[in-house]
């Protein structure tokens, strides 16, 4: 599903964000990528969604070589990969329903298809009774659920979650992780980027540890070891 071959990414003047990284994530896996801030975790996410291009190596996503992906192809890639960030990136003047629908509208989907898909994803995240509220009228945990619903509208094969619990308390954080596990059980490959030790240790899933742009650990049933 995801294959990185000897990828390196450099930033001026002399920063090595990623240094000869090799990684293979299989379809249906749930993988945590852990490490301290500035170690290269988010750079991997940006590489997988075409936001950054590597300086060396090859990047394969779903059998597609995106190493030198063009700007016109990036929207197609991002319909195959759902992305969740620490900040929810919701539109404050739109209802929850409108926020999720917007992700389909910008791709030119018909009203019929939007009206079919959006209620389904809102039900998955448990917010089917709050679709007409605005972001400021719900909790941070619920806002992150809306962001997850939005990421699911294209039925992505891969879900990248970059510090999705960073702005949440422990109870809401656990609920978001449970939701990611539920989505994973549907067959979606989930890549969780986090520095939350407790969450990683409770998951008992595969853990990839990055330090200074290098993979220093890859445990099939892992713990946060830094």
Structure, briefly:
This protein has helices at residues 41-48, 74-80, 96-105, 111-124, 140-152, 170-185, 197-203, and strands spanning 2-11, 15-25, 30-34, 56-61, 64-65, 81-84, 158-162, 189-194, 206-211, 214-219. With 226 residues, the protein is of the alpha/beta class.
Globally, the shape reads globular
Second-tier CATH architecture: 3-Layer(aba) Sandwich
Secondary-structure content class:
alpha/beta
Number of helical segments?
A: 7
Strand order of the largest sheet: 6-7-8-3-9-10
Number of domains as seen in the coordinates: 1
Q: Tell me the fraction of residues in β-strands, as a range.
A: 25-35%
Low-confidence stretches: none
Q: What do we call the CATH homologous superfamily?
A: P-loop containing nucleotide triphosphate hydrolases
Number of strands: 10
Q: Kindly report the CATH topology.
A: Rossmann fold
CATH top level is Alpha Beta
Biggest sheet descriptor: 6 strands, mixed
Q: Distance N terminus to C terminus?
A: 27 Å
Average per-residue pLDDT, rounded, comes to: 93
The succession of helices and strands, N to C, reads EEEHEEHEHHHEHEHEE
As a whole number of angstroms, the C-alpha radius of gyration is: 17 Å
Secondary structure: helix percent: 25-40%
